[in-house]
Amino acid sequence: MKKTLIGLALCFAANAHAQPERPASAVETASASLRDIAPSITATGQVQSRSGAEMAAGTSGPLAWVAEPGTAVKKGEVIARLDTGEIRLQRAEQGARLTRSEIALRQAERELERLRASGTAVSRYQLDQAENTRDLAKSDLEIARATLRQTDDRLARAEVRAPFAGVIAERLRREGEEINRGDVIARLQDTEHLELRLFLPLRHVRAIQPGSSVQVQLAPDRAVAGQVRAIVPVGDARTQSFEALIDLPQQEAGFAVGRSLQVVLPLESPQQKLAVPRDAVVIREDGLSVYVVRSGKAARVSVKTGSAQGEWVAIEGPVSPQEAVVVRGAETLHDGDPVKVIGEHRPGMAGQSKNKGLS
């Protein structure tokens, strides 16, 4: 009886100390890989047109017509027109004065020729008078012609034409308003040739060069390449920053004048480093780590992070290239936990995997 009781006690003790095996955790993984990564900074810039103009009136008069905001215009196309009724009346008067000047010149030339043909019968004084009259008639004719050209120029300036192809961004004056020369009527923006204007800390002025390639983020999972066109190395003492201008692709549809975009600018030449997706790095009180899948279990590996590029971040630690690291599901893992890989995470495809069994 005593032996039976001892056996039962030992059995209960063994069952009490036995731990149930944890079920395998569903995870998504990605392969650690060697990538060319450069230290970089992220800055916010604003899209602006490389060609923008305030279209002003070239002459005075009532505004007869102006294009609607949003109207696309070609180079040389009329975007505003002033009423030219008064100018045309002035031109008609000046045309008549020009005709009178031409008649007066012909009459003065004939009179001079007649006096010269008279020989000694005409005094020198009379010849001088006739020559002066002819010269004055010539001057009057030139003045009349210049005045007419000025009026023709005013007529041409009564039509405000686009200096480049673009879109009417704003209409400042309306039909019927009296316009003075130099008054801004509308604003024109070239929406095809865009640039990004941003300000960077002065300490990076030597790291960015014209011609450098940068990544412009249109969305969290979408970026396009831009090129640094110009650097304005004159710093702002108050903000401790300098200006950089970046050319944007013309065919890209995600740009709009005034839109703010994030730009990633490399500070050094790229170097090949071991990298993992950002979501693979687990942040806990005792430091940074990643979980590597080895023999069906999660092995916690402490790492240090370095430069980042897009969704990838460089790491230092005992992780080999092509090893599978946990990207989704790592938050609740512990070292040695069994795992079940249900999908492969593909950076750049936010929320997508080859198998969507992870919830």
Automatic annotation (TrEMBL):
Residues of the CzcB-like barrel-sandwich hybrid domain: 67-188
InterPro entries linked to this entry: BSH_CzcB-like (IPR058647), RND_pump_MFP (IPR006143), YknX-like_C (IPR058637)
GO CC, alphabetical: efflux pump complex
Organism listed in the record: Hydrocarboniphaga effusa AP103
Coiled coil listed as a keyword: yes
Protein name: RND efflux pump membrane fusion protein barrel-sandwich domain-containing protein
Domain YknX-like C-terminal permuted SH3-like per the UniProt entry, residue ranges: 274-341
Signal peptide (from-to): 1-18
SUPFAM superfamilies, sorted: HlyD-like secretion proteins (SSF111369)
Keyword set, alphabetical order: Coiled coil, Signal
Family statement: Belongs to the membrane fusion protein (MFP) (TC 8.A.1) family.
Single GO molecular function: efflux transmembrane transporter activity
Keyword Coiled coil among UniProt keywords: yes
Coiled coil: 98-161
